[in-house]
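user:
I keep going back and forth on a fold encoding question. Separate attempts, laid side by side, tell us more than any discussion would. Would you put together a sequence-and-structure record for a protein of your own picking? Write it directly below this note and I will take it from there.

assistant:
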Amino acid sequence: LASFLAPKTEMVHSKGYRSRTRHMFSREFRQHGKLPLSTYLQVYKRGEFVDIKANGSIHKGMPHKYYHGKTGRVWNVTPRAIGVEINKRVGNRQIKKRIHVRVEHINKSRCQEDVHQRIIDNRRTRKEARGHKRLLKRQPTQPRGGKSVKINPDIITTVSPLKYELLM
């Protein structure tokens, strides 16, 4: 009887190291089990961009949930782990954070592919246009060209609503 009279107290949610990571650290559909050897044979060099994607099946060297999905730059390479430098927003400023993450939890980033392809294209364009001025900067997509439609005026019919009459 006394428990009904006592004021109701809410339970505070836990703030553990891996809290709220049920879907974040879960493996993809039909991707459970051991990792392929290619994950361990990947070569990482200093200065490369890498994406941090924590793998829930490997607990060692797993980054904190904050870094999951972030892109950073390699600053150190050790036998089993990679040192990654990431910008972390704290309040109104960005702090460079250096963390070590095992190779199972990182992938090579594709964020620079377009930049490298544009550099190659610009070099080719510059070589072809020797002596001629050529625009190498990216241009926003231009509006599409206009069109005119020709119609036979005899086919045109005007449609108008019928006059309202109270039916009783």
About this structure: The chain has a mean pLDDT of 92. The longest strand covers residues 81-90.
